[in-house]
Amino acid sequence: MVCLVGSGPEDIRAELAFPTETPDIVLKRATDFLLDSEEQFGDIAAIGFASFGPVDLHTDSPTFGHVTRTPKIGWSSVDVVGWIRRTLDKPVAFDTDVNGAGIGEYEWGAGRGLNNFAYVTVGTGIGGGIILDGQPLRGVSHPEIGHIRPHHDRERDPFPGVCPFHGDCLEGLASGSAIVARWNGTLEELGPDHKSMQLEAGYLAHLCAELTYIVSPQKIILGGGVAAAPGLLPAVRRRTSETISGYLSDELYGDALDDYIVEPGLGNRAGALGALAMARRLVLGSA
Ligand SMILES: [Zn+2]
């Protein structure tokens, strides 16, 4: 959990980071931090909360602002927005962590000036948002692109997957949790020559190809701790190009894809700065 107080990446007044524990501990720590910051810096105008999902984003729903059904212990059905509003009487913007990061990248990072891009994070889990004209794509709920099912060659990769809902979906096979469960180490620890690198690149290339076919984004931003492993991004570009080129324009999707599949402009702060961008939008009236 990362909390920031400020008005943008160049104006961070206070910051606090701590591990995600049970909801009462986490939410109390976060709201205490904001109350302390108000004493120090004056009134906070609005609050943005970018949460792991799944969450209810429908403002007319009785469970708006709740984390819904999650494997994270103690977090199912927790009313995050209600908790914040009970403690601090402020406007609250609420979205998924990946939509938040996408908004941050649109405002200040690699998505600036783009009409349509995908933000994907590959960390403990895998999630992603589609940002259209600056707004996250929503439907009945929010996209869950980490749970698509990639081709799983069980001879090459007999690992059954770790997703509690689907087993060998993308998150089940290619998330940080899956990598550690399969090889007892992270990509970085295993090194670029270990077979984990090509396997991981193949699964993420599958996602990039699917996104390309379905959304036709101008860019795919790949963030998160796993995606930052040295050598992974170039391997994902290469495998994506192999997967899609020849069908879509080689001019657009061939060669290196250096400007197409990119790292976040805001680095590992995309999520936290995204929540700040969400709050800022409330204040500026562009939410
Ligand atoms: Zn899954």
Q: Give me the Rg, rounded.
A: 19 Å
Termini separation comes to 23 Å
Shape: globular
Work out the strand percent.
15-25%
Number of strands: 9
Discrete helix count: 10
Structural class: alpha/beta
Question: Helicity range of the residues?
Answer: 25-40%
Averaged pLDDT:
94
- Detail the poorly predicted runs: none
Spatial arrangement of strands, main beta sheet: 7-6-5-8-9
SSE order, one letter for each helix or strand: EEHEHEHEEEHHHHEHHEH
What about the largest sheet?
5 strands, mixed
Bound molecules: zinc ion
Record the SSE blueprint:
Blueprint: E1 2-8, E2 11-17, H1 23-41, E3 47-51, H2 80-87, E4 92-96, H3 97-108, E5 116-122, E6 126-132, E7 135-136, H4 170-174, H5 176-183, H6 187-190, H7 195-215, E8 219-223, H8 232-244, H9 250-253, E9 261-262, H10 270-284
Parallel strand pairs: 3-4, 5-8, 8-9
Antiparallel strand pairs: 1-2, 5-6, 6-7
The protein binds zinc ion (ZN).
Folded structure, characterized:
- The structure is a single chain.
- This protein is an alpha/beta fold and 287 residues long.
- 38% of the residues lie in helices and 16% in strands.
- The strands form 3 sheets. The chain has a 5-stranded mixed β-sheet with strand order 7-6-5-8-9, with helices on both faces. Strands 1-2 form a two-stranded antiparallel ribbon.
- Helix 2 (80-87) links the parallel strand 3 and strand 4 (92-96).
- The two termini are 23 Å apart.
- The model has no long low-confidence stretch (mean pLDDT 94).
- Zinc ion (ZN) binds at residues 147, 163, 165-166, 169, 171-172.
